[in-house]
Amino acid sequence: MDLSNLKPAKGAVKKSKRVGRGQGSGKGRTSARGHKGARSRSGYTKKVGHEGGQMPLSRRLPKFGFTNISRKEYKGINLDVLQKLVDAKGLATINAETLYEHGVVGKKDLVKILGRGELKAKVDVTAHAFSQSALKAIEAAGGSAQIIKA
Predict the structure, then answer these.
(1) What would the pLDDT profile of 25-58 be if each residue is shown by its tens digit?
(2) Is residue 150 very low, low, confident or very high in pLDDT (cuts 50, 70, 90)?
């Protein structure tokens, strides 16, 4: 083998049709762009969502309600999940970092403790928010609840 008989792998090179190289090429004259109009001109770019005069999808679909841009989205964690963590890992304090380390919440999630299930263990819980029933259940079990400022 030498340099004279090297060639690319089969299917690696795709031969493109050169446009604008005369009528004999089959792609001369208008260079496969048709006659006149914006698409035949150089520099043409179609705007996002443009459907050629048809009413665009974004305007055909109905829009309802109101989206509050300053809404805080909390990740709800129930008491039964906390009890499972205490049983499995033997935790005495639970906060957003320990919940993240055990894969319960994401790193930037705001945590709200909810009241489903029951808590038997004495646990000190630190979270961004608590439901009233969760607060009562934590204090009834002998633990404490502390709110973090988000």
Answers:
(1) 889 999 989 999 988 999 999 889 889 889 999 9
(2) low
CA–CA gap between residue 117 and residue 77 (Å, rounded): 11
- Longest Cα pair distance anywhere in the chain, in angstroms? 91
Residue type at 19? V
Q: What is the DSSP string of 89-132?
A: H--SEE-HHHHHHTTSS-TTPEEEEE-SS---S--EEEESEE-H
| Angle at the Cα of 111 from the Cα atoms of 108 and 117, rounded to 5 degrees | 145
Question: What's the pTM value of the predicted model, to 2 decimals?
Answer: 0.58
Beta bridge partners of 146: 126
Compute, in degrees rounded to 10, the torsion defined by CA atoms 90, 95, 98, 104: 100
Cα–Cα distance, 137 to 116 (Å, whole number): 10
pLDDT, tens only, 127-137: 999 999 999 99
Which amino acid does the sequence have at 89? Answer: K
